[in-house]
Write a structure and sequence with these properties.
heterodimer, A: mainly alpha, Formate dehydrogenase/DMSO reductase fold, 11 helices, globular, B: mainly alpha, about 70% helix
């Protein structure tokens, strides 16, 4: 099979967009999951939320871009995957909606009940999506049942194989680690120490779970060269543990990000040249060639991406730099919300 | 119900909800940017009070617009996979461009704006809100360009081998004359929405403070906001009228059936087509029962062609033409009805115009009442301000219901002067691999979640509106607080 340059380029670009998404939103999923574990008092919870307050929305756009780019570059993939993975995606969407609105509305009202509900939204939304992304990607690696028209024919429960569920555990632990390392890097004081201690545990968990999953995936679906990302991921995870123990938080974060990057390379590497393999009949698989847009569309989108992705990276990096300062509980100012959702009596009289 | 109907309901419900918040964001972001610019330029802290007040309302609204927007990017693949396969080569590009060029800017710079008051230099901080405002507007352009391809496909060819539309020119897609008309119409509608929102709230507060004896605040703070909102409404009203006229003229050419349905004109008249002011009867796609009670002769022809006597085809003639051109029967041998739902099309068109004209007319009254430095204190003016706020939202919703329902039965309406094969019936676009039960579950969950969120949103907006502008504000910028930089323990000036 001959591959066109543009099709390979777009396969790589989609992988880059997913990497951006999982590395960036990965830490704010982790932070969301750790909210009840590290934040016992209200000010601690506010501290935790404020580490990602200015960033989470920009991080989430990587997902929309990955979705939009898949639509534009590989419409068949977009159509088959999104219609096939219907129920998991539905749960992801609802979780992201509840989680996002909880982040933004939490500070608006100073009532215990209100905050409790918003915290629940953040926590549940973060846990559920963290698991489901792993399940979804593991299913891509494993392949799904499709017919000759590339229509998904498996049911919802076919998506819950042991390999896929273990994939969910892997992303869960990776994001917990990533979030803990991020909090250790961004905070100071008691939370920082606790986050460092947790990061050590999660990194050991990640090494175990990701190790089993990656070797299973590599043996069953990998190629010779995909041993490289597997080994890089393993080395990075060990490095997270070691650098974290030495208190080198910046490096621990870099290695944690590198592990996620290597995982995406492994996933996409084992897929190539398929974008969505058919487990029942290899001829039915969607590939970078039969799923793609026309060369003209790919060319147009290449120019757009090559020009804009670096710009996006530039201003997002600048944003992270603007909010680079470590924060601690003492930095958290008085609450900004109104005392209750009810309008005080007499407001509309007179 | 079949999957098709459920999927249509879901698209309608999620999109109408989403587009409840979006116009307010698109219009309010530049208004807040103008308020902040006035503060930076004049150092008058009354402008800062307005910026903070409406900025907070903008954020409450922005958040819900963002989270409901995620669904839109996924929904095409989930519920409309066959549509996605057919148009993906063309339709995906503007969506991806929107994310890359606009959505990233909005989200990232909004974060900088919210949390950056004490971290960014005053002018840089001001630039962030302008970037947000610009990006929300740009975002609308890409989405409307995508939608315009569904109304009037251009810039693409049909590949008989794959049975798909393929893009031939991105330039043609992005400069589709349909989007060139729809964009100013949508943006001015957003300005009308935000102008009414600002004028309504500031007007209510102006009256209230005046009656409480706080003439200084009434005049100095709220009257300014009131007048700013009113002027935006007037400008938006004029823009809506001009762009709407241009859009209607195009639509008479591009989708004559939609416009015939909007007038419920069944038989082609002998001379010019009247503009129907009121029609009664059972419209359920039965021309026989439509009874035009009140019409202005020739006006519809004038709107379409600038000629009162121009002959426009009625629904029955158009149905015959469409059947001849695009086939009389579908694959199952059923006759294809090319007529959109008459009740919805006729009434949504009128409600769009009516609600928008109502709020624009109120703006003129408001400007008259506050002419030459007057600060009115009539209680009913304040109440009217609050009542007026929902009207442009209703106009926008009805406008989209008209645009989308009037396009039926097509999801991609054929371009009468383009490639006839680039067309798709809505029924052919729906996902086939999921059963009706799953789609119904999705519809139910989204309806419950969106309704609940909208309830929370409305209460928060109401609560913060009733709270009013902050009594005291101060300049949080780093240049105004040089000491803070040297104090590592200084609290953040703002945190969630």
């Amino acid at each position: 099979m001959d591959y066109e340059f543009l099709n390979v380029l777009w396969f790589i670009l989609i992988a880059i967009l997913w990497t951006g998404y999982l590395v960036l939103e990965g830490f704010d999923f982790g932070v969301g999951m750790l909210l009840p574990i590290l934040g016992k008092k209200e000010k601690e919870r506010r501290l935790i939320i404020n580490t990602i307050g200015p960033l989470w929305d920009g991080n989430e756009v990587w997902l929309l871009t990955a979705g939009g780019a898949t639509f534009a570059a590989f419409p068949e993939w977009y159509a088959s995957m999104f219609s096939g993975f219907y129920i998991p995606l539905l749960i992801i969407l609802i979780s992201l909606i509840i989680r996002g609105i909880s982040f933004e509305y939490r500070s608006k009202i100073e009532s215990v009940t209100w905050k409790k509900w918003c915290d629940t939204g953040i926590i549940v939304g973060s846990w559920v999506t963290s698991v489901l992304w792993g399940v979804a990607f593991a299913n891509l690696v494993r392949g799904v049942e499709m017919d000759a028209n590339h229509q998904f024919t498996g049911g919802f429960f076919a998506l819950l194989s042991p390999f896929a569920l273990l994939g969910g555990v892997v992303t869960l632990l990776l994001f917990l680690q990533h979030g803990a390392v991020f909090l250790a890097l961004k905070t100071d004081g008691e939370i920082r120490a606790k986050a460092t201690a947790l990061a050590a545990k999660f990194s050991l968990g990640s090494i175990a779970a990701a190790g089993v999953w990656a070797i299973w995936g590599q043996l069953a679906y990998g190629k010779g060269w995909t041993w490289a990302p597997v080994l890089i991921a393993a080395g990075s995870l060990v490095a997270v543990y070691l650098t974290n123990r030495k208190g080198k938080e910046g490096w621990a974060f870099v290695f944690s990000a590198l592990a996620i990057l290597a995982a995406v390379v492994f996933i996409f590497g084992s897929l190539f040249p398929n974008v969505m393999p058919a487990s029942n009949n290899a001829d039915y698989s969607l590939t970078i060639m039969n799923a793609s847009s026309t060369p003209y569309t790919l060319k147009v989108m290449s120019w757009v991406a090559v020009f804009l992705v670096p710009v996006v990276l530039g201003y997002q990096a600048w944003t992270i730099w603007v909010f680079r300062k470590r924060i601690k509980v003492e930095h958290i100012p008085e609450p900004i919300g109104l005392e209750s959702l009810s309008v005080p009596k007499g407001t509309f009289g007179a | 119900m079949e999957s098709l109907d459920i999927a249509r309901w879901q698209f309608a419900i999620t999109t109408v909800y989403h587009f409840f918040y979006v116009p307010l964001t698109i219009g309010l972001a530049p208004l807040v940017a103008i308020m902040q610019t006035m503060w930076v330029r004049t150092n008058d802290e009354r402008w800062l009070k307005l910026t903070k007040f409406f900025g907070k309302l903008l954020l409450i609204n922005f958040a819900i617009g963002v989270v409901t927007g995620i669904v839109q990017e996924f929904q095409f693949g989930m519920n409309w996979s066959e549509y996605s396969r057919f148009v993906g080569d063309v339709f995906g590009a503007p969506l991806a461009m929107e994310a890359l060029a606009a959505f990233f800017v909005e989200s990232t710079f909004l974060g900088l704006w919210i949390f950056g008051w004490d971290k960014l230099n005053k002018k840089v901080h001001l630039a962030t809100i302008w970037l947000v405002a610009g990006a929300t507007t740009l975002s609308a352009y890409f989405i409307l360009a995508a939608n315009s391809f569904m109304q009037h496909p251009v810039g693409a060819v049909y590949n008989p081998e794959t049975g798909r539309a393929e893009m031939e020119s991105i330039w043609a897609v992005l400069t589709n004359n349909t989007v060139l008309a729809a964009f100013p119409h949508t943006i001015t509608a957003a300005w009308l929405t935000a102008g009414t929102f600002v004028a309504g709230i500031a007007g209510w507060w102006m009256v209230r403070e005046k009656r409480r004896g706080n003439a200084e605040i009434a005049t100095g703070v709220y009257r300014r906001g009131f007048r700013l909102g009113l002027w935006v409404m007037v400008i938006a009203g004029v823009g809506l009228f001009i762009s709407g006229d241009a859009q209607a003229k195009l639509m008479f050419e591009q989708q004559p059936m939609k416009m015939a349905a909007a007038e419920a004109i069944c038989e082609t008249p002998d001379g010019g087509t009247p503009f129907s002011l009121l029609a009664i009867g059972d419209f359920s796609n039965d021309c026989e029962n439509v009874n035009h009670v009140l019409s202005v002769p020739g006006v519809t022809s004038f709107l379409a062609k600038g000629d009162f006597n121009y002959q426009l085809s009625g629904i029955n003639d158009l149905q015959a033409q469409y059947a001849e051109k695009y086939g009389q029967f579908d694959e199952n041998g059923k006759e294809i009805n090319y007529v959109p739902d008459l009740t919805m099309t006729y009434w949504s068109f009128r409600l769009m115009i009516g609600w928008a004209a109502f709020s624009a007319a109120l703006a003129l009254a408001g400007l008259w009442l506050t002419r030459k430095g007057r600060t009115p204190d009539n209680k009913w003016l304040g109440v009217l301000g609050i009542i007026a706020i929902p009207t442009p939202f209703l106009a926008s919703s009805f406008g989209w219901i008209f645009t989308e329902m009037g396009r039926q039965p097509w999801v991609v309406a054929p371009n009468p002067n383009g490639i006839a094969d680039i067309r798709m019936l809505t029924a052919d676009g729906v996902t086939t691999v999921q059963g009706a039960g799953v789609v119904l579950g999705s519809l139910t969950v989204f309806t419950i979640v969106y309704t609940f969120l909208t309830f929370i949103w409305a209460r928060l907006i109401w609560r913060y509106m009733a709270h009013g502008a902050p009594a005291t504000v101060f300049d949080e910028s780093p240049e105004a607080n040089p000491d803070r930089e040297n104090d590592p323990d200084a609290p953040l000036s703002f945190a969630y």
